[in-house]
Amino acid sequence: MTDQLELTVDTEGETVLVHARGEVDGESAHWFEETLREQLGTAKALVVDLLGIEFFASAGLNTLVTVHKQATANDLPFVVVAAHRAVLRPITLLGLDSTLTLRASVAEALAAVGR
Fold first, then answer.
1. DSSP assignment, residue 18?
2. Which one in 75, 86, 102, 103 has a CA-CA gap of 20 to 30 Å to 56?
3. Which stretches of 13-70 are assigned E, i.e. beta strand?
4. What is the pLDDT of residues 54-73, one digit of tens each?
5. Half-sphere exposure (CA, 13 Å, Cβ side) for 58?
6. Distance CA 80, CA 47 (A)
C-alpha cells in the first residue's frame, strides 16, 4: 500500500479480484502494475475493480494495457470494472474502451469471465 493507493486481492473460485482505492499516479503505478502481474501466474481470470479510484493517471492506463496484453497472450480473461468519470474518461478518450473489457460492477465482471 502507498499513501495514495490501497490494493486488496480476493478470490472468487479461480478468478482473482484486485480492488483498488485511491489514486493511481506516476508514484503508485509501479506497485499497481506489480500487483496485477503477480496475479497472472495464479489466476484463471483476472478482474480489476477500479470503482474506488478517484484519480487515474496515464501510468495507470499503461498498466492496464500492459497487463491486458500479457493476459491475452496467456488466454486469460481480463476484465476492468469502471463506472465513473475519473477512470472511464481517460479510457474512452484514448480509445481503450475498444481494447479492454469493461464492466460497470464486479458482479457483471464475474459473469463476463464465467464465474
1. E
2. 75
3. 15-24, 45-56
4. 999 999 999 999 999 999 99
5. 2
6. 6
